[in-house]
Design a protein that fits this description.
Layout: H1 2-9, E1 15-16, H2 30-40, E2 47-48, H3 56-68, E3 72-75, H4 79-84, E4 106-109, E5 115-120, E6 124-129, E7 134-137, H5 145-156, E8 160-164, H6 171-181, E9 187-191, H7 216-226, H8 237-245, H9 252-255
Parallel strand pairs: 1-2, 8-9
Antiparallel strand pairs: 3-4, 4-7, 5-6
Amino acid sequence: MISWLDARAAAGRWLLRIEDLDPPRIVEGADDMIRRTLDAHGLGWDAEAPLQSSRGEAYEAALAMLAEQDLLFPCTCTRRALRAAGGSYPGTCRGRSLTATGAPSAIRMRVDAKTLAFTDRLRGALELATGGDFVVRRRDGLWAYQLAVVVDDGAAGVTDVVRGLDLLESTPRQRLLQDALGLPPPRYLHHGLVTLANGTKLAKQTGAPAIDDRRASENVAHVLTALGLPAAPGAPPEEQLTAAVSSWPPGPALASDDVLGEAPG
């Protein structure tokens, strides 16, 4: 909702991207459920981005550009080995050639910079750790999120990325990819999250219940109230959102790390 409000207040376009990079984890019908929920809550989109499962040629082209710059290397390190190293990549395979053959390998991007500076629209100037060499293509041949989202944003002409704080640490890697691929970086805005009563992020991985479309008006009002924007729980979502756009941005509330607080019961 925050990204929708930001786009509408700027007279911009709001794109819907259904990410399907990991076929084994796709739930049949989940994409239609997402569309129905957005529609029920008055969050209409201007266009749908192509499915990532159809974008293999574009990702291959990006990979070739990175290879030409000698930024890639194959990595045979297992998850167990990475856990033993403390969870961060220790550079075990970075001296290997991309043309080396042998065991099935992930492909990593070589990163020499320890940190990367950028400006967040809410949080100002930031300098975050890059996290070192990172995967752009998985060992099983599937594309990594970091590469796919950068290529897709560039193809769609995305100018502003509005997302939760849980993705803040991905920004340095995506900025590095944008620079290497010659893509203009979008502006970034990272907002707080909806949490469960125990403080964990509201997500299916944490056992959060599905959004109840029958309570769309109340759901919209809850978020608007948390943002300090006008809300009317009994009014249709579209009516509430129209009023909220005229009051955007909401000010200090948006910058709070827990701006949305606990999810409604």
